[in-house]
Amino acid sequence: MGVYECTHTPIPTATRKHASYTCEVQRLHQMIPTVLPKLVVEPGSAVLPKLVVEPGSANLEREKPTKSRHERKEITMRVAIVGGGYGGVYLSKALEARNVDVVLVERNERFFHKIGGGRAFIESGFEEKVFLEFDELLQRRDSCVLIGEARALNVNTKTLSVWCGREADEKRDINFDAIVFAMGVRHTFGQLPDEGLMLDDLLATCKREQDRLAMVDVIVVVGGGALGIETSSQIADTYKDKTVHLLHSRGALMSGAGSKELGDLVKTKLEALGVNVHLGCGRIEKEDVQRQYPGSLVLMATGCRMSDSSRSLLDPRWINDETSEIRVGPSLRVENAPDFVYAIGDIAATGDYKQARWAHRHAEVVAANICGGNKIYQPLRSNPWFIRPLSYILCWWVRARVDSTLVIALKLGLHEHVMEFGGILFSDYFTRRKMEKDTGIAHVRKSALSLPPN
Ligand SMILES: Cc1cc2nc3c(=O)[nH]c(=O)nc-3n(C[C@H](O)[C@H](O)[C@H](O)COP(=O)(O)OP(=O)(O)OC[C@H]3O[C@@H](n4cnc5c(N)ncnc54)[C@H](O)[C@@H]3O)c2cc1C
Predict the structure, then answer these.
(1) Which of 51, 136, 181, 282 is the Cys-Cys partner for 450 at CB 3.0 to 4.6 Å?
(2) Distance between Cα 43 and ligand 1 center (Å)
(3) Distance (Å, rounded) from C-alpha 311 to C-alpha 334?
């Protein structure tokens, strides 16, 4: 890409220790320009102008007013976050709210609104909406978003090595006081390649997937979980002339959610959209499906796993190979790692369903613990007591009462939704009013990235 220019000298660990308190802040500020790389934007480049804000630079439009003596007695520390998805973004905000400096390392040039990723891979034009700017995310003058791929970590020297630039040929070392892994996991559809991409390549990736779909008459989606359901319904709704099959190993859709009512309702809605649902297919291999449906496009939507790049960054002792996740304790510290190493979001073995909302909750716990708290993360394992009575009160909107504790909001095609919250399956009347037609983009623009509506 050739648009980055950086000079970099890491702060020696000993110096950073002394620079921890405000009496040393000025000295720290003098050093930081050598640590934080400078982003130089070439004329005509699509690179975002305010990704890296240098102390003392003319970019400091949001410089804070001079603090009172009392306020100045804050501890300054720097947290490196690997991964600028939902978890990384939520955590950056939670840390900044506690006056902590953040270096958010994200390998893609833009935030990827993964929740709308499936739709961006299917519906032409939608890809323009799902890659969002990081410009407004960080407010502290010593925080920055660094676009590059984290590829090496030294916990002894507290150094993270990040490769930047289109060719990933510029290495920068980031020093940190604490580090958080928020690299997410790879899904089987609606998934970007396992490498960093600039905006033009991100858009081209979506277009390529859209073209693959446009060229075939028959599409077979394998996996009747949330991803397979959303994918097949979206394709059927977008391409009314194509034949769409959804194959699921078990006897009911959304079998992981353990709610027959939910599975039955989803099946009815999928069939109304024209999806051919096949249940009880047992273990399904891609090659077998290709033989059974010659000439079709087979899309696997059968779970997720840690990416190879994440695996190579991490100490193997931190990884649970069975679940392909990072082992964490109740404080979300990584097990077998020093106590300044944390993991959040999909990549952390918290026992949660893989959903952005849990990454949000993890971020709050980790932000508190980094700042000296002792917060314990407790995944929701039972419904609160008021849920059953509430379901009676809401009877106009409640379709059925089920036992699941999951929070599920499925988008079916372009206009249909199904929502289950706290064991209550909501009727269409409620769901259509609650769910956003834009797959949550307006919400994430405003609440997570502080961007204006587009
Ligand atoms: C099609 C689809 C629909 C979904 N719908 C919903 C939904 O409706 N509701 C819901 O709650 N959840 C939904 N999910 C799940 C949700 O997207 C994930 O739970 C969520 O993205 C997890 O957030 P995360 O921050 O852990 O990881 P991610 O959002 O995956 O972010 C990880 C980030 O880390 C970056 N990264 C990885 N490795 C490196 C590295 N070495 N260096 C730098 N950066 C790196 C990646 O580029 C990525 O941006 C959906 C998922 C898919 C695929």
Answers:
(1) 136
(2) 31
(3) 14
Distance 84 CA to ligand 1 centre (A): 9
> Tokens in use for 274?
């024209």
* 327, two tokens: 């082992």
Q: Whose CA is nearest to atom 49 of ligand 1?
A: 85
A 10 A CB-CB count for 285 gives 10
Burial category of 179 from C-beta neighbours within 10 Å (exposed 0-12, middle 13-18, buried 19 and up): buried
Cα 147 to ligand 1 centre (Å): 16
Q: Is the CB of 117 under 6 A from ligand 1?
A: yes
Residue with CA closest to ligand 1 atom 35: 83
Task: Report the nearest-CA residue for atom 37 of ligand 1.
Answer: 183
> What is the C-alpha separation between 92 and 363, in angstroms, rounded?
8
Mutate to test the pocket of ligand 1, among 302, 355, 362, 447 (most ligand atoms within 8 A of CB): 355
Mutate to test the pocket of ligand 1, among 82, 86, 187 (most ligand atoms within 8 A of CB): 86
**How far from the centroid of its chain's Cα atoms is residue 163's Cα?**
20
CA 237 from centre of chain: 26
Ligand 1 pocket check for 190: Cβ under 6 Å: yes
Which H helix or E strand runs over 292?
helix 286-292
Domains and CATH numbers, the chain: 4-188+306-378 (3.50.50.60), 199-302+392-445 (3.50.50.60)
Give CA–CA dist 15/8, Å, rounded.
Answer: 16
The answer, yes or no, to whether any atom of ligand 1 lies below 6 A from the CB of 209, is: no
The tens place of each residue's pLDDT in the chain, 454 residues long, gives 322 222 233 333 333 333 222 222 233 333 333 333 333 333 333 333 334 433 333 333 333 444 444 444 456 899 999 999 999 999 999 999 999 999 999 999 999 999 999 999 999 999 999 999 999 999 999 999 999 999 999 999 999 999 999 899 999 999 999 999 999 999 888 889 999 999 999 999 999 999 999 999 999 999 999 999 999 999 999 999 999 999 999 999 998 887 888 999 999 999 999 999 999 999 999 999 999 999 999 999 998 999 999 999 999 999 999 999 999 999 999 999 999 999 999 999 999 889 998 999 999 999 999 999 999 998 876 777 787 788 778 877 887 777 777 788 899 998 899 998 877 888 888 888 888 788 889 999 999 999 998 7
With a 6 Å cutoff on the Cβ, whether 88 touches ligand 1 is yes
Task: Report the nearest-CA residue for atom 27 of ligand 1.
Answer: 184
Q: Is the CB of 228 under 6 A from ligand 1?
A: no
Neighbours of 181 (CB within 10 A): 28
